[in-house]
Amino acid sequence: MTDTTFRKIVKEVQGRIVDLAKKNGWMWFYNLHQKEVVESANDLLKLYPKAERKIVLISCWLHDIAHYYAKNEKEILVVKKSHHIDGAKIAGEILVKYKLNQEEMEKIKNCVLNHRNHEGYKPKTLEEKVVATADSLSHFKSIFYLTYFKFHPEHSLEVMVEIDLEKIERDWRDLGILPKSRKIAELEYKVLKKMLSGYRG
Ligand SMILES: [Fe+2]
Ligand SMILES: [Fe+2]
Predict the structure, then answer these.
(1) What pLDDT, in 10s, does the model give residues 32-48?
(2) How far is the CA of 152 from the centre of ligand 2 (A)?
(3) Is 70 exceeded by the pLDDT of residue 201?
(4) Among 15, 67, 69, 112, which residue's Cβ finds the most Cβ atoms within 10 Å?
């Protein structure tokens, strides 16, 4: 794809996400997660320069697009379960008018589909791995783990600590997909883990 097409796609996707985020109250998620994922991907592209930059960055903008349709924190917990599948579908619908070649279209849809590193949806290509790793890496680069009570205000501190520690370990494990990424997040991983484990006494 040309640089112009790339820029047009990013502009449209970003615009759509911001509109939905404003309408449904997800600007905080956009600010602390979406932007960080794109930044993390740019950091990873420096470490893994063979990955196709345009495919990676468009996929990062699209990876959580399904989230922004949720109307509130309760609804997002349901939407979240299939947001990789729904997101890949939405990506296809948005991109069709740009007349990308079949291969580019498939690459982007698969990056969205496999960004969670779940069973049956494991990242396979380098581009898919960069997107999945950028998603996990972004969690260490923002206040992501501190947003727990926005989704579960009724839970106790003890539960938050246990669930966050599990999530931190899963994210750290996922950074193993592209091991050089661990250097970027090592300090944050250790500090977060120490602080949360400390609460257990
Ligand atoms: Fe996601
Ligand atoms: Fe994400």
Answers:
(1) 999 999 999 999 999 99
(2) 18
(3) no
(4) 112
CA of 165 to the centre of ligand 2 (A): 18
Distances (CA, A) of 114 to 12, 24, 185, 189: 22, 25, 22, 24
Q: Minimum-distance ligand to the CA of 116?
A: 1
Task: Measure Cα distances from 69 to 6, 167, 192 in Å.
Answer: 24, 24, 31
Could you count the other beta carbons within 10 Å of the beta carbon of residue 67?
23
- Residue 39 CB neighbours (<10 A): 16
- Give residue 171's pLDDT band: very low, low, confident or very high (50, 70, 90): very high
Distance from the alpha carbon of residue 60 to the mean position of ligand 1, in angstroms: 10
Report percent pLDDT > 70 for the chain: 100
* pTM, entire model: 0.93
Report how far ligand 1's centroid is from the alpha carbon of 145 (Å): 15
Distance in Å, CA 110 to ligand 1 centroid: 13
Domain 3-200 class, CATH top level: mainly alpha
Domain boundaries, the chain: 3-200
Distance 34 CA to ligand 1 centre (A): 10
Do residues 145 and 139 lie in contact, with contact meaning Cβ atoms separated by under 8 Å? Answer: yes
